[in-house]
Specification:
50% of the residues lie in helices and 15% in strands. By secondary structure, the protein is an alpha+beta fold. The chain has one domain (14-121). The protein has a two-stranded antiparallel sheet.
Length: 129
């Protein structure tokens, strides 16, 4: 899928666009679901939630979103939880230096091609004790 490089490229380090970086993050699963709109949208939602959960936990020291994911989707339940666990691990292992939040993401068509659009937000501020 061609990447849309119009989404605030300055928010992603190393000259990569936010959309490209996020697609790299979800890519191990993207190819399997990109042809089914409902599965694709579900993956985008899981990607957004897991990305932001790690950013809040690791940058701001706020585990609330991670705890909500665990409460709604207990570890060891299989299915979608396996995808969430893969994404959580990928964020920490391969994308830890990216501290921006994903505000919105979606798929659109341009010139007959499917493209990914990701809108980034500023990193959260650390929680003060």
């Amino acid at each position: 899928m061609p990447r849309d490089h119009t989404s605030n490229p300055t928010a992603a380090p190393l000259g990569l666009s936010v959309s490209r970086t996020f697609l790299d993050f979800i890519e191990p699963i993207w190819d399997e679901v990109s042809h089914e709109p409902a599965a694709r949208d579900g993956l985008l939602t899981m990607g957004l939630l897991t990305w932001n959960a790690i950013v809040f936990a690791d940058v701001a020291g706020d585990r609330e979103l991670l705890d909500q994911i665990d409460a709604r989707m207990p570890r060891g339940t299989g299915g979608p939880r396996l995808i969430v666990d893969l994404l959580l691990a990928r964020k920490r292992e391969s994308f830890a230096e990216h501290h921006w939040l994903v505000r919105d993401c979606g798929v659109f068509e341009r010139d007959g091609e499917t493209r990914l659009r990701v809108e980034a937000g500023e990193p959260p501020k650390p929680i003060r004790s």
